[in-house]
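Hey, does this match?
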Amino acid sequence: MVVRPAPAVGNQKFMNSKDTPPAAGVEQELYAKRQKIYPREVHGLFATLRTLGVFVLLGLYYGLPWLRWGDRQAVLLDLPARQFHIFGITFFPQDFFYLAVLLIIAALALFFFTTLAGRLWCGYACPQTVWTEVFMWIERKVEGDRPRQMKLDKAPWTPRKVLIKGTKHTLWILFSLWTGYTFVGYFTPITELAVKIGSLSTGPWETFWVLFYGAATYLNAGWMREQVCIYMCPYARFQSAMFDENTLVISYDPRRGEPRGSRKRGADPRALGLGDCIDCTLCVQVCPTGIDIRDGLQYQCIGCAACIDVCNQVMDKMGYPRGLIRYTTQNALQGKPTRILRPRVFVYSAVLLLLTVALVHALVTRVPLEVDVIRDRNALYRVVGGSLVENTYLLKIINMDTRPRRFVVAVSGIPGVRLAREPRIVDVAATDVAEVPVRVRVPRARLDRTRYDVEFIVRAVDDRALKVSERGRFLAPPPGS
């Protein structure tokens, strides 16, 4: 039988040169079976920051759909109407530019913070991390701490175990369904959605997305957990491209900690020929991905800093200085000078600042009016009364304001140009689109070529500063025809 050695997966380590090779005739698995990880609860500065991040981010997620802005939901992405309400601003598909810039800013911010201090996003703000923290909190409240969870999983199935496990999964499912309901509430007014769910009258797409998003939350945060970070998330694979020797990462100091070994509290490690690490393995027990930070920087590390909190507590009890595991750089660990503020950090920060200022300026100076000019292509032109050349257009006037407006339409660009009916007054409701057919006429004697550019001017009657102009093509018969 052919031996198939495989790289280690999950909590296993790669085989080194000292390991005994597999015996002949023994078949090995390509992939190691997942071993469930039971992270120990930890308290400390970084745990407090993670908890604060969970409250803020989930507070925003679950709370924003319930905020009101005037007579509508403050944040509502109305896909059927192609209107996206963000507090006092209504965006239309034509405003995709703002979303593109926002996504670029988000990507650059990710690069900036990763270059500066590693996987801050993964450890404190990633949805997978945030929802997993909530699911683990529910698990600890129902099943108990780490030792109790391990004991319960090893115990045979009894009515008590079924009750505990059933309670946990019921709470998980309810929380997941609430998450899916909130997600759909960003696209369907959440109060209307509640009435539809109560009367079992939700549409097929609303039902699908509530269940799909709820199921994704339940599976990812409840069952898959660290597997999403290790195997499914691409960020874990390419993050190293943004690291260098001056990036702040969570690291174990081997020069201070080795050789590791147990000892009595308050013992002098130097007198025992030991380092500061007492080999308690608490840093492994609190890790949500189950790695040993003492083995060096690993792509499975999500930068949650739980190992820093627990190690500092151990150092306090032993009477040793804190910082055996800490945020530091590879250069600092090797005794080399560290440059946190370096060229790439300045470049990222400058570009981020420039794009952010540009986006804010564009939003502040944004004119809540847009005009699209669509020329009637069924007829190039018409000669009216023998002396006037007429072209027909369809104007789409988009009122992006939160109140109805009255607009006047005018045209210019060619001597003698005018609308067939003047003045042209158009009433457009708030956040609505009005389609206005217009006929533009020019005296034939004023035309000496076949193509001209005309400019349509749409101005609010009650606000002369609210004005938009858009060009259109005017066609005429050949001169002398």
